[in-house]
Amino acid sequence: MDFSLLRNIISRYCVGEEIWVDSRTVYIGHKEPPPGAEAYIPQRYPDNRIVSSKYTFWNFIPKNLFEQFRRIANFYFLVIFLVQLIIDTPTSPVTSGLPLFFVITVTAIKQGYEDWLRHKADCSINECPVDVVQQGKVVRTQSHKLRVGDIVVVKEDETFPCDLILLSSSRSDGTCYVTTTSLDGESSHKTYYAIPDTMAFRTEQEVDLLHATIECEQPQPDLYKFVGRINIYKDKEEPVARPLGAENLLLRGATLKNTQHIYAVAVYTGMETKMALNYQSKSQKRSAVEKSMNAFLIVYLCILISKAVINTVLKYAWQWSPDRDEPWYNHRTEHERQRHVVIRAFTDFLAFMVLFNYIIPVSMYVTVEMQKFLGSYFISWDEEMFDEELGEGAQVNTSDLNEELGQVEYVFTDKTGTLTENNMEFIECCVDGNVYIPHAICNGQILSAASSIDMIDSSPGGYRREYEDLFFRALCLCHTVQVKEEETVDGIKRGIHQGRPTSFYISSSPDEVALVEGMKRLGYTYLRLKDNYMEILNKDDEIERFELLHVLNFDSVRRRMSVIVKSSSGKISSNTGLFIGCSSCSWLYGYLFCVLPGDYLLFCKGADSSIFPRVVSGKVEQVKARVEQNAVEGLRTLCVAYRRLSQSEYQEACHHLMEAKLALQDREQRLAQAYDIIERDFVLLGATAVEDRLQEKAADTIESLHKAGMKVWVLTGDKMETAAATCYASKLFRRTTQILELTKKRTEEQSLHDVLFELNRTVLRQRSISGLSVDCLDFGLIIDGATLSAVLKPNQEGAGHGNYREIFLEICRNCSAVLCCRMAPLQKAQIVKLIKASKEHPITLAIGDGANDVSMILEAHVGIGIMGKEGRQAARNSDYAIPKFKHLKKMLLVHGHYYYIRIAELVQYFFYKNVCFIFPQFLYQFFCGFSQQPLYDTAYLTLYNISFTSLPILLYSLVEQHVSMDTLKREPSLYRDIAKNSLLRWPVFLYWTCLGVFDAVVFFFGAYFLFDNTTFTSNGQMFGNWTFGTLIFTVLVFTVTLKLALDTHHWTWINHFVIWGSLLFYVIFSLLWGGIIWPFLNYQRMYYVFMQMLSSGPAWLSIILLITVSLLPDVIKKVLCRAMCPTATERAQSTRPCLTVEPSTIFMLSQSSSRMSF
Amino acid sequence: MMASSYSAKDEDGHITVSGPGGGTLRNKKPENTAFKQQRLPAWQPILTAGTVLPAFFIIGLIFIPIGIGLYVTSNNIKEFEIDYTGDDTSSPCYNCAKNFSWNNTKSCTCTIPFQLDQPYESNVFMYYGLSNFYQNHRRYVKSRDDSQLNGNIDSLKKPSKECEPYASIDNKPIAPCGAIANSMFNDTLTLFYNDPNGTSVPIPLTSTGIAWWTDKHVKFRNPVGTNSNLTAVFQGTVKPVNWHRPVYELDTDPENNGFINEDFIVWMRTAALPTFRKLYRIIQKKNTMAPTLPRGNYTLVVDYNYPVRSFEGRKRMILSTISWMGGKNPFLGIAYITVGSVCFFLGVVLLVIHHKYGNRNNSANISN
């Protein structure tokens, strides 16, 4: 986010200071405004060229190299390489230059190729034809030539070339339908509106006559936000100003649907379109493994430096005597002799650094990257995570966090759409204390008093009827549902009327659809919105029309939405249906509940907590009771209320709204204020209950997560009772769970301080009593948003009361499940942050499906999005997206577990093999006069990490399965074995390093004693130093590869191929390398060295011996650990052969489907 | 049930692959291949006490006999070593060592008598050994020009700069260049058998076959000039500073002269450690009946040319017989015996552990 801000600022500065203003003025058709209206400031905007490519042909090499060397590892290797070039080094610059060159080239080619693809895509986008209105004619031009202010014609199924303000459409009501699939993945059609003043334009000529300017904000990346104003000049009158919002702005990348053509004016072009502004990636998350890897790297860097320092110091101590420094047989050149001793010492230090630099391997970074990148494919390939219904499988948005999936300690989950289906079904409504339950069969029939338990006043007729009608009308009108139409206009009415599936309702909120559909079953059918008139087919098959004046949209802060409508007789032939009861109703209720034509009505629906405080009359008590009961049953409840507005009240409301809408700054805030003023003094109509069923296997998943040692928190905006019921149903709370409440209700009775301390005492006492058997009683905490913000508020009273935050965390730590209800989106993120920052620094995972979960998904270490019904926002912002909540189980327990052990082994093994590789070199310095003589040949130094030992570990880290998938799923507790980064902790790291040092010592001294002053060929000939190094290197390659073989638990043909293959490759390479006099080399030191070595019997014997000795301790350690104190994983491995059906499997099958289970 | 559903999905996967124009939804469905679903058939070995036990015993049973064999072989090898450095006043070479000067044109000779207690039956290999001589010093190791040694005329005239400061004298290239060549071991060692009847019989020393065949025939080659005369070929080059003779006068035998002189080749293979030995001569076994070197008194005559006192080095002469496993080296045999015994012992320990803990684990599993 900071980045985009920065970028905006920079781009603004670059364009020029003079236009650095908060809003921009667009002259439609490039026509100057009439003189006197305002000054015409010609503004420069970028053209409509989309540049998604990073490089051009010319700057590719410098820019790409710069980008690559910004990575600290690459930079380190570059420095080493440069040092090798500059000073007289023991190893040729090739040894570090070649791997670096390889890495850089591969990356550059990959990035270059991607950029070339982007160039191609850019080109095809920039050159695609666009129709522009110029001088009353449609002119075809290329997309990149579009400028701000151009009027564009877009035909059906075409993509918008830039961000446009809709002027008019071929549809008479000035709307058009658009899909934004390529932008946010939502495939539903969205309606966009033209402003009433321009929607009548039909031809190019008419459009061209339009004389108007648009003022709007500077481009910003939020897809769902737009603030602007259009000033239309007509005949030198005062300009007419109309507000423009996101509903008028057609975004680049979206596609026009169900509309023949539209006229629109370009406001943002090229890189300033919202789509382009959204290109930038999210902030980088780093995994725990990466952090420990970096810590290890620092340790190794210290080892490296200390090795170099030790050797330098020893070198100068040793060659103190000139006969050692320069014996007669080994003089320096004159040039070297003249160099100052300090410079010489520094050069020596650098040379030692270069000699030992392989201890920090270049290839580790490449391998880790490749492992992550390739490994992430297994997630998207996973068939079990494919959802047939959605037609989509799991999706990996970042591969950097694969292993973090195996480290999760806290799971924060959203409720609606995540734990539950978000597939709403209308269950009942309660009108004035009477309960109505619609039945799907009795379509169009109202079934009053299907359940009359709660009826207080059972007198039929009277005002009740009107009351009901008003309630149903309210639900039919107070929504933002669209009717998805089929081709023919005639078919729609019939389709909806007859309940055929040819047309259906679409809305961003499934609750609304459920309500409107529920109303249909109760006899009131919402037909459509036409020319700002909402049409309802009432239960007497008559069409009622209401003029839709204002929609006060839903937002999660207000938690309600309203509409203001004006009832009109319209073209209805008779009013009898509508006003049938008016004559008979009592004067009081008649006024209250009858709808007369021309009445201004404000309907509002929303959460009970946001409605009840605004209600002035109505049967609040009964409705409240019913709402609470429904909530306990896990139903989602909404309250419906209305208010009759007088003409003057309406005018006032209108005034407030217009003022707020026209504001260019702080529009959101001012709108909220306006809404607050308008939405009050309600008359309560009733409440609805909608059921949201629990997702398939949600309970099983939560149970598994619990068993795996994760703490599951449910964060929801829902109210406590509903949420708690869901928690029970999903086994988050069990019957044995002792519920601790930390809610507003309690804190009203006692002070927060007391409640917190009391809860803390309860928890601690229980823990001390139960002692070891913690499992017998677990706690569940329920906290609501209000209390949470009180807890998190910094304590003003100083340290006297201690910090609530700490106490709260202490309580949470002892609770196996926590339910946070009534949470605002930001609070969700706050909670995640709080836990993240607590002193154990646990790894958190957030999972959600809606836009309100995005903040917590971004905040958590791992963010998982559910590709749910509430759009794609969560999935887009997440690190991983899965179709269903149940897939989380496999994601964490199987994939996460695998990725973690794979990468942990990868990291440890890499350090190990390089210790084995470099430590003998270090030891050799003691025997070669600290002269930086390398032990191995250049080719071996170069290729050790690149080809001899790279593939086995890479493939291991891709396909290793230490325990079978089914076992992991069956026994979630295995997850605890790898908790807290257990395979990368310091003792483990130390073990691996010690093992490496031990092996290195074995290699070196094994070879040393063998070579010590003796011959080991049968013809008496002697071997030289290169044979010595080759012997060590051979033992090294074999040991290191076989060590990996010992660690492999899952031998597929790939492992066999790669492990034996790379050993074979080593042998073949060595034979080849020593087999010819290489013409391009200036030394032939390896000539026949390998073959000569193999011709010697003792060499073979010592290779076998040294490999055995090096591998022995690790084998013994493994066997002993397994025998003495096996971990759960090891037990699971040994019991693998006997796969019996265990009770847990059966338990898995028994699913609790939906309802509460107290 | 599972199997049938899998096979059904398998078919789906194939359809997806074969129909490129399929719907987007279908294409998104992952293929049900064993690799992609991570269900490749695999061998899943586990290292437990039970599985490792036999391996330990087998290793023990194999290694101990090998070790014993190696040890016995090594013990049967006869080796005699004599130090002739001459830094001790009692040493016959003391004067030569003390009076050494590079300017001496005439070499100093010293005679060292020694006695062999056992007869040396097979071929005897004669080595010279140097101590504290850092042939593996980096500056030293790289100070050579392999292409010059391979007979490249250009390199002969213009040695690589790696050879500095032993590359040229007064702008005349040194052949062979470099510190290694310059410091070539140039003591001449000759052996005499002191017959019990008083006569001193020189022992024939073979100077061929001491270098690697490939070195002699491929890696090292004399430059080929217009004529086959080595002297002419090396015209324009100078001998290394510390040499007494130019390279083309190393031997009279043209097959052992110049760069392909085996003494030179042997020296050019730099040793791994500061204490090393190099093959000097071979004493071939003459007839099958008599030992190559019968027990008795011998005399080693040294032309003392090679100074080592300045760097506290030592010079030795070694006589050794050779077996299939090379020279005398008890280390390998002892190591094999030790490792074998350790493995055997560990096998026993593991057996105990396996019995003790294996049962406990099993019972634990059952109770779980």
UniProtKB/TrEMBL annotation, chain A:
<keyword id="KW-0547">Nucleotide-binding</keyword>
<feature type="transmembrane region" description="Helical">
    <location>
        <begin position="295"/>
        <end position="318"/>
    </location>
</feature>
<dbReference type="InterPro" id="IPR001757">
    <property type="entry name" value="P_typ_ATPase"/>
</dbReference>
<feature type="binding site">
    <location>
        <position position="416"/>
    </location>
    <ligand>
        <name>Mg(2+)</name>
    </ligand>
</feature>
<dbReference type="GO" id="GO:0005789">
    <property type="term" value="C:endoplasmic reticulum membrane"/>
</dbReference>
<feature type="binding site">
    <location>
        <position position="822"/>
    </location>
    <ligand>
        <name>ATP</name>
    </ligand>
</feature>
<dbReference type="GO" id="GO:0005524">
    <property type="term" value="F:ATP binding"/>
</dbReference>
<dbReference type="GO" id="GO:0045332">
    <property type="term" value="P:phospholipid translocation"/>
</dbReference>
<feature type="binding site">
    <location>
        <position position="852"/>
    </location>
    <ligand>
        <name>ATP</name>
    </ligand>
</feature>
<feature type="binding site">
    <location>
        <position position="414"/>
    </location>
    <ligand>
        <name>Mg(2+)</name>
    </ligand>
</feature>
<feature type="binding site">
    <location>
        <position position="415"/>
    </location>
    <ligand>
        <name>ATP</name>
    </ligand>
</feature>
<keyword id="KW-0067">ATP-binding</keyword>
<keyword id="KW-0813">Transport</keyword>
<keyword id="KW-0479">Metal-binding</keyword>
<dbReference type="InterPro" id="IPR006539">
    <property type="entry name" value="P-type_ATPase_IV"/>
</dbReference>
<keyword id="KW-0812">Transmembrane</keyword>
<dbReference type="InterPro" id="IPR023214">
    <property type="entry name" value="HAD_sf"/>
</dbReference>
<keyword id="KW-0967">Endosome</keyword>
<dbReference type="InterPro" id="IPR059000">
    <property type="entry name" value="ATPase_P-type_domA"/>
</dbReference>
<dbReference type="GO" id="GO:0055037">
    <property type="term" value="C:recycling endosome"/>
</dbReference>
<dbReference type="GO" id="GO:0005769">
    <property type="term" value="C:early endosome"/>
</dbReference>
<feature type="binding site">
    <location>
        <position position="717"/>
    </location>
    <ligand>
        <name>ATP</name>
    </ligand>
</feature>
Automatic annotation (TrEMBL), chain B:
<dbReference type="GO" id="GO:0030658">
    <property type="term" value="C:transport vesicle membrane"/>
</dbReference>
<keyword id="KW-0325">Glycoprotein</keyword>
<dbReference type="GO" id="GO:0016324">
    <property type="term" value="C:apical plasma membrane"/>
</dbReference>
<keyword id="KW-0968">Cytoplasmic vesicle</keyword>
<dbReference type="GO" id="GO:0045332">
    <property type="term" value="P:phospholipid translocation"/>
</dbReference>
<keyword id="KW-0472">Membrane</keyword>
<keyword id="KW-1133">Transmembrane helix</keyword>
<keyword id="KW-0333">Golgi apparatus</keyword>
<keyword id="KW-1003">Cell membrane</keyword>
<keyword id="KW-0813">Transport</keyword>
<dbReference type="GO" id="GO:0005794">
    <property type="term" value="C:Golgi apparatus"/>
</dbReference>
<keyword id="KW-0812">Transmembrane</keyword>
<feature type="transmembrane region" description="Helical">
    <location>
        <begin position="46"/>
        <end position="72"/>
    </location>
</feature>
<keyword id="KW-0445">Lipid transport</keyword>
<comment type="similarity">
    <text>Belongs to the CDC50/LEM3 family.</text>
</comment>
<protein>
    <recommendedName>
        <fullName>Cell cycle control protein</fullName>
    </recommendedName>
</protein>
<dbReference type="Pfam" id="PF03381">
    <property type="entry name" value="CDC50"/>
</dbReference>
<dbReference type="GO" id="GO:0005783">
    <property type="term" value="C:endoplasmic reticulum"/>
</dbReference>
<feature type="region of interest" description="Disordered">
    <location>
        <begin position="1"/>
        <end position="29"/>
    </location>
</feature>
<feature type="transmembrane region" description="Helical">
    <location>
        <begin position="331"/>
        <end position="353"/>
    </location>
</feature>
<keyword id="KW-1015">Disulfide bond</keyword>
<dbReference type="InterPro" id="IPR005045">
    <property type="entry name" value="CDC50/LEM3_fam"/>
</dbReference>
